[in-house]
Write a structure and sequence with these properties.
The chain is an alpha/beta fold. Helices cover about 45% and strands about 20% of the residues. Strand 1, helix 1 and strand 2 form a beta-alpha-beta unit. The termini are far apart. The C terminus is likely disordered. One of its GO terms (cellular component) is protein-DNA complex.
Length: about 300
Amino acid sequence: MKLLIVDDEEHLVESMTESLPWSEVGVTNLSAAYSGKQALRVMEQEPADLVITDVRMPGMSGIELIGAIKSRWPRTVCMLLTGHAEFEYAQEGLKHKVSHYLLKPVKDEELLANVREAIEGLLAEQEQMRALVQSQAMVHRNRPVLRANLLNNLIQGRPWHDRKLAEELALYDIPVRVGDETALILVRIEDREQRYGISDMPVMGFAVANIVEELLGDGYGSWSCEDLYGHLLFVVRHSPEQEHAEPLERLADEARRIVSRLLRLTVSIVLSPAGVFPDSLGGTVPALRRYDPRADRLR
């Protein structure tokens, strides 16, 4: 960790920097400044993780220095050296989130203990940040699978509290919200077993899903999965900003034609009436699975 010590009394700074075992408490880089302005120049060249500053210095006070540091380097931990007579004045540092107040003359053991505590806090914060970044990266990598799993859980009737479901929808960036008016589209590939091998079936399902999602485009917010029966299911929300979106019936006809031409597959597509998400899933999905393949819409 990088530590910057700031005090206009040079002999105190030299004593602190040269006589204390900083490496034992986690300091790997130590620098000094003798005024607030010089400290800011040091920070600009190589920002410190931790700053210890005297409260009273000519030109720029320690309080002013901490305010300037926090405005530009908000994660830097600041500690304030102050005398008993200055303690009330030093309370102004609270608004700048000063982490520690050290009363002069500070004992070496107390100074080192406070620095150790501050560094341990910084390391814990960095570890939490790393874990958060890794978690977000994992969600991003696995987002398609996680989105599909969530929809399958809803289809299978797993109960969700609206608040928890809303959090999951937002986490996976799903363009549907609790209470939205949605329609359901079920797509069944009728002849993929005859035209393709078993190993090709997931690829064909992916290709068909891409075609449908491309056709839905910006006019509809869609969310899809492959259910336990091998059907492709789409939850579709009309986007209010797209007033002239193609009707779903017309998009279904176009999807059938494109799939037939590009993939040499026959698909049956059925649409549900509009319903309120997620309440409409429970009864509508089983009915969709029982549809007449000669019909375009659930009866």
